[in-house]
């Protein structure tokens, strides 16, 4: 739809950060990659689709921020004094940052699609998508929702064992 194309139209590159298991540092890699890109002058967004463990708002010290609506959807939270990192996470939609998200697949999949289509990212050089651990429906939903757009690639985070 035109709204979908509009909200991601200004995003030049999309990178997925994935792993086969939890606790390997996906969110840390996503955050550090965003900070490194920002430090080179790039405009960066992070889409945190780790719905059951949204840790990036806390990592970037914006966990008490709120998401607002605009004509084209949700406005992401802008991080830092320079506002060079845009962030969308379910962590901003919870009443309390430590609230648990106990949702079944269809509701999670609908929110992922909504995050992809309804966030007004503006112009970004990179959108980093931090995924949940494993190979669940959420990964399939994320890839399906992003299929119309050119993915730059994926970063697979692993451990030596």
UniProtKB/TrEMBL annotation:
Listed GO MF terms: 4 iron, 4 sulfur cluster binding; ATP binding; ATP-dependent FeS chaperone activity; metal ion binding
Any one GO biological process: iron-sulfur cluster assembly
Pfam family, one: ParA
GO cellular component: cytosol
Keyword set, alphabetical order: 4Fe-4S, ATP-binding, Iron, Iron-sulfur, Metal-binding, Nucleotide-binding
PROSITE patterns linked: MRP (PS01215)
Protein name, entry field: NUBP2 factor
Species assigned in the record: Lanius ludovicianus
Gene name as annotated: Nubp2
């Amino acid at each position: 739809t035109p709204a979908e194309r509009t909200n991601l139209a200004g995003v030049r590159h999309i990178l997925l950060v994935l792993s086969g298991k939890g606790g390997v540092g996906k969110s840390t890699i996503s955050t550090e990659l965003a900070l490194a890109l920002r430090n080179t002058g790039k405009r960066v967004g992070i889409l945190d689709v780790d719905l059951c463990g949204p840790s990036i708002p806390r990592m970037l010290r914006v966990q008490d921020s709120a998401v607002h609506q605009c004509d084209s959807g949700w406005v992401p939270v802008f991080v830092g004094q320079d506002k060079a990192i845009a962030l969308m996470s379910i962590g901003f939609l919870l009443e309390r940052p430590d609230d648990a998200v106990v949702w079944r697949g269809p509701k999670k999949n609908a929110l992922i699609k909504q995050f992809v289509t309804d966030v007004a990212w503006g112009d970004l050089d990179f959108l980093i998508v931090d995924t949940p651990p494993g190979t669940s429906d959420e990964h399939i939903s994320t890839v399906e929702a992003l299929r119309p757009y050119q993915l730059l690639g994926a970063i697979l985070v692993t451990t030596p064992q």
